[in-house]
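Deviations from the work plan: none for this task. Representative record:
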Amino acid sequence: MNGKERILARLQNGTPDSLPLMPITMMYAGDIAGIPYGVYARNHEALVQAQLAVADRFDFDYVSAISDPAREASDLGAAIEWFEDQPPAINESKALIHDKAVLSGLALPDPAAGRMNDRVCAVRMLAQKTGATRIVEGWVEGPCAMAADLRGLNTLMLDFGDDPDFVEALFDYAVRMELNFAQAQVDAGATLIGVGDAAASLVGPRIYQNFVLPFEKRLLAGIRAMGVPVRLHICGNTRRILKGMGETGAAIVDLDYPAPVNEARAAMGEQQVLLGNMDPVRALRDGTPESVTAHLEECHAQAGRNYIVGAGCEVPRGTPIANVEAMTRFARTRQ
Amino acid sequence: MADLQKLYDAVLNGDQKAAIAVTEQALAEGITPLDLITNYMVPAMDEVGRRFECEDYFVPELLLSARAMKGSLTLIRPLLTASGIEPAGRVAIGTVKGDLHDIGKNLVASMLEGGGFEVIDLGADVPPEKFIDAIQNKGVRVVALSALLTVTMPSMRKTIDALKEAGVRDQVKVMVGGAPVTQQFAEEIGADGYSDNANAAVALARKLVAEGAPA
């Protein structure tokens, strides 16, 4: 089986020849290819070169166009801070929707322009170069993350209590924008879409259930209607919202290290494909090949057969090559 | 008479308007600022921290409570200053150079303030010189450094090294935190303490002050 067949077999309740391997790599991929991250995030050709390099080097079953959460916000005119060799960041003190009235006049950005288009181009190039044998993952922001990118994370957290109607209007805008962005990536050849909604890990079960989950469901349903499966990635402590995450319609649910695999399995049932939850820093970067293998063994044992190998979040810069090789070795020798 | 239990409830429930109203009434009736802080606001924020730690409260609830507390403190702080009452300690806090992710820092700052500390919030992406200035000119006894990204963790070491080079390292205790930060890393870079959550950061700051960060 090639990587694409392996992942699809897992998602379609088939029998892959070994565990699929889908660790998120961004800065790590840039480092492997010798590309500064400021270039990686701005130039799709550099991103593609790095993704192919890391996938070839470690026999990953997929490549991804994920890079940073600032593409959509950047195209909308938000203040972005750029760095030479780390991801760009949104400057919350100059949040685009600092004034709530801005939202009503905000047009949806065109995914065929700007930094969103750069990601679409990355997807297209990845699909051309490796799409026959690997899954090509596009990426969009989830409603809570996108709202935080535009409104400011701290302010959004207060908005939940102060102005729920505004939050819903902002989430609605975010979902409409991300559906357009996802469609453009699917049209360019993405065979899976990742949805990153990290801010959702901060809000607790009540707000997640009442505000976030309905919009995540709408977003994921829309993407699935485009004919591709969805990977839901909420990094952080999702322990109290695991049940809801299992109701989003995601084909793959990522688990960061504070969310135990066995609790996720209990909350989501046997059929849900899980990925994670190895601590990217303490277990993967700071561990040894032996300890990495032991961690993965435990994760796999808790998850059962519907499992994909990966860390809780991005493979951190500075992770020893031997530790990533241990992930590969583990995946290729287990079913 | 002001019902001071309402101040406790207002902070706990994140009701800024009620917190300010009760504080105004209490001060007008001659209740001392220290009484309000010590017997109502600090216990309320202690309870907020407890609920946060046991995952009953989450970030929105904590920030709403912090905002309510700050509303009261705006009224109270000038009176404390005029009375010459010293805080539990002065803490300079910020995310280190290169890191713009400040929600964790804001949670810790709020909990420290709720714990009776005076917090000098230097914001996000803070160069070492600003921490040095706060130590030299604002009576800071504890420096709290935050980083969310693995790539900005080296800025924590650089900040501590800069404190040494400026000759002020011995004047303060340094505590560090943030998702990728570990106890081991804290020790490697020469920090005095590490906390993995906002509530525990208050206990750590109290411990560091008690251990003898110079007055």
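The CA atoms of residues 30 and 68 of chain A lie 13 Å apart.
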